[in-house]
Amino acid sequence: MEFFRETDVVVIGGGIVGTAILRELSKYDLRCLLVEKEPDLSIGTTKANSAVCHAGFDAPAGSWKAKTNVRGNALYHELQDDLDLDIKWCGSLVCAVTDEQVEQLGVLLERGKANGVPGLEILTGDEVREKEPNLTTTKAALWAPTAGVMWPFGAAIAFAQCAVQNGAQVLRDCAVTGFVKEDGRVTIVNTTKGAIKTRFVINAAGVYADKVARLAGDDSFTITPRKGEYILFDKTAAPDLVWGIVFPCPTRTSKGILVCTTTHGNTFIGPNANDQDDKEDTAVTPAGMEEIIAGARKLVPNLPLGAAITEFAGLRAVSSTGDFVLGASPVPGFLNAAGTQSPGLSAAPAIAEVLVEALGKEMALRKKCNWNGRLPRKKAFNKMSASEKKAVIAGNALYGRVICRCETVTEGEIVAAIHEPVGARTVDGVKRRTRAGMGRCQGGFCGPRVVQILARELQVPVSSIVKERAASHLYYDKFTGGGTEGGK
Amino acid sequence: MEMYDVVIVGGGPGGLSAAYSAYRNGAKKILVLERDRELGGILQQCIHNGFGLHHFHAELTGPGYAGRCIDLVKDKPEIETMTDTMVLDVSQDKVVTAVNPQQGLFTVRGRTVILTMGCRERTRGAIRTAGERPAGVFTAGAAQRMVNMEGYLPGKKIVILGSGDIGLIMARRMTLEGCKVQAVCEICPYSNGLTRNMVQCLYDFDIPLYLSHTILKIKGRDRVEGVTVAKVDARMRPIPGTEFDIDCDTLLLSVGLIPENELSRAAGVEIAPFTNGPKVDQHRQTSLPGIYAAGNVVHVHDLVDFVSDEADIAGKFAALDAQGRLEPVVSTVAVKPVDGVRTCVPQVLHLPREGEATRLFMRVGAPARKVTLEVKCGGEVLVKRLFPVVKPSEMITLDIPADKTAIMKDEITVGLKAD
Fold first, then answer.
1. What's the gap between Cα A360 and its chain centre?
2. Based on the domain organization, do B8 and B65 belong to the same domain?
3. CA 20 to 30 Å from A12, out of A32, A84, B5, B260?
4. CA B163 from chain center: how many Å?
5. Mind listing the pLDDT tens digit for each residue in B277-290?
6. Residue A473 appears among annotated catalytic residues
7. What average pLDDT does the segment A299-323 reach?
8. Domains (ranges, CATH) in chain A?
9. Mean pLDDT of the A187-205 span
10. What is the SS3 assignment for chain B?
């Protein structure tokens, strides 16, 4: 049989969990390969979430969620410099607005202590308002200094780039269609690009993890997509609305509707939490927007609703087991990193350790001696000093041409994002790597120019450039032959 | 650091008109900084005609109007222009920091600065339309640039939300390109475009206009597949049961323009409510001495001719200011829009002893017929003008003679009175 690739480990899914696992695997003397069904990494749950690196007091002690969250948070503090990650360690507040909720804070505090979360503290309403003056309704809050907000797509791409620089491979536009087993053991992964011979498979397929597991013969869990909707505000409209992460007291299904800052100073509100069957439906709804506005107003009565720049929704991968599904499965050679709803982003680097440890029980792992965990620095043009700006333009004149006006992103940065390892091939891919199009005009000015730069650099026609997924074409060639015939 | 009499941020019709006016009023060293690859601003993508009837007394296309403006500034040693140049910062002491591929990062200082950055389009996010986020949702202006300047189509079967002028123009443009324009939906019970654009762009092409309708949902996950439309009540809320779907692959948004004042705000210029532009006096001086503003950055205009008129004023007084030739101010008069007038520019008058002839530019809040616009001071009507029709989409003007401004005190009101 002809194989398209032969490897030791195939990781399925290019979100934050899959890429973190690929990076961890790349430390060892293994051939490893990540397959992602979409044209870019990090466009499932990793793309649309609260981007919070949680402290780790929410989940019950002893659960995977609790263990990997606290460990993952600590790992991000270490990884930030090596991978040049954008994380703002702003701390989080869980705000009680009723007396019953004030009592609930004590429960969270105890749980946090049991989970090993450092620095937790209950603050009075006045102490809260010293940090966050707009929290006028808060009676008391749980302060978690180790929480932060991060740039989730940047982290996933950095994990993948680090893995690639250490010999791992990433295949995009490569969907898993089935598995072949020998003596009950998974040995071949069939994909839309061809068959891959492998010794192990790690399933990090997000909301599709149960479908992928089913293909391999593992029906030990199901995944229910839980939609969360968000509204994001322009950063100039209300820069001081909140400085950090503001949660309400949690409910059974969710950590509640936040009012939260981002790494780049925008504020967002959301998410709500609604279970659905559809693994694709990420539409925002009028009812959902009303729900998150009403929820956020309980914490911050004056929201800058007129300054909304976008609304979006993401799907959390909620497992039927109530916890993350990590490690060996009933199917030999097939491991899961599934059900990684919140705090999946925070836990990802720790989940990667858990999976590699599980793999180590099934095969001998040898660390590489020349593994390089540091990525080259990529300072954004708009964060450079005047002398740094002058120097970078002197080296490459394209850094002197501003393409995205709202976020001051230059052509040099966009070209670099296209040609870097696991580079951007789509308009949203450029956006996730550079912020071009993430500002208040939402790509109105820069969108067409980004399309043209992509077409030029990738040497393809403008009409072939897509926004995100394969069918998301942006522009068409004009009708030829004249008249209205073409329109019909 | 290179010193200029006047540094102008933006080389559209506002910036170019201001540069020419500054030149005619004695400025010797003028710099225009433009971020696009050529001068002329958004006019370069407006290839339809109808521009210039007031200012140039000729019917021009957008590029034609831009060409006239460019002709006025070219070959004049006093006026320097730089394209492909993005201004990153304007400081209170009028130091302008900019960047381009040729010169890199550089700073210049102006004795005066004129802000003419224009405006941008409101986006889908601002109106919170439900649905997925597929390709095929564009602001009308972005689509216009792609069709007219870059030579590509944003789609083939089009629905347009908003009956602003750009939306109307694009309805016709896409039809002429061979596309099918399914409908134009407008949430207001009246159109928000110029009457002539309603006639020439919709009626002449039999394009359906749905007044008091909005788009509830965008359908399609990867590319737009259709929209769900509903009728709205008097408070612009969707009426349940009135929903219907329209098949399309593209949604163009023409849902308003926002003056682009990020540089102004960062500099510390006071921004006026309702116009969302700098608060200016009759010379178009902002709250910061020596920093002027004109055109769509001050308030969104309907006609480019008025942009040029306003930029003429800013250019003139910025030039006089740079030469120390402004007359001393003896009184300050606030201009307050009341009774049906939504915005009025200038918001304040800084008057010399003998007064100064001044033109007010206003927008009304709702359409009305046979109304009188009155300028009052202390209960006394100083100037009035009868309008047979007023519409929110069309700017109205009123000239106040110098002798009337000389007798103003503290505050004047500008309001409509029904006949």
1. 27
2. yes
3. A84
4. 16
5. 999 999 999 999 99
6. no
7. 94
8. 1-88+147-222+320-377 (3.50.50.60), 89-146+225-318 (3.30.9.10), 381-464 (1.10.10)
9. 97
10. CEEEEEEEECCCHHHHHHHHHHHHCCCCCEEEECCCCCCCHHHHHCCCEEECCCCCCCCEEHHHHHHHHHHHHCCCCCEEEECCCEEEEECCCCEEEEEECCCEEEEEEEEEEEECCCEEECCHHHHCCEECCCECEEEHHHHHHHHHHHCEECCCEEEEECCCHHHHHHHHHHHHCCCEEEEEEECCCCCCCCHHHHHHHHHHHCCCEEECEEEEEEECCCECCEEEEEEECCCCCECCCCCEEEECCEEEECCCEEECCHHHHHHCCCECCCCCCECCCCCCECCCCCEEECHHHCCCCCCHHHHHHHHHHHHHHHHHHHCCCCCCCCEEEEEEECCCEEEEECCEEEECCCCCCEEEEEEECCCEEEEEEEEEECCEEEEEEEEEEECCCCCEEEEECHHHHHCCCCEEEEEEEEC
- Look at residues B268, B298, B326 and tell me which one is the last residue of a structural domain: B326
Q: Note whether B18 and B44 are same-domain residues.
A: yes
A385 touches chain B (CB under 8 A): no
Instruction: Give the predicted TM-score (pTM) of the model.
Output: 0.95
Q: Does A360 touch chain B (CB under 8 A)?
A: no
Whether B86 and A402 lie within 8 Å, measured CB to CB: yes
The verdict on A485 touching B (C-beta cutoff 8 Å) is yes
Task: Please tell me whether the interface predicted TM-score (ipTM) of this complex is above 0.85.
Answer: yes
Chain B residue closest in CA terms to A397: B101
Q: Does residue B277 sit in the same domain as residue B304?
A: yes
Q: Which residue of B has its CA nearest to A426?
A: B135
Smallest Cβ–Cβ distance between B135 and the set A401, A474, A479 belongs to A474
Residues B104 and B50 in one domain: yes
**What confidence tier does B191 reach under pLDDT thresholds 50, 70, 90?**
confident
Question: Among B152, B170, B176, which would you mutate to test the A interface (most chain A Cβ atoms within 10 Å of its Cβ)?
Answer: B152
CATH at residue B165: 3.50.50.60
Q: Which of B91, B99, B172 to mutate to test the interface with A (most CBs of A within 10 A)?
A: B99
Mean of pLDDT over chain A: 95
pLDDT tens per residue, range A376-411: 998 999 999 999 999 999 999 999 999 999 999 999
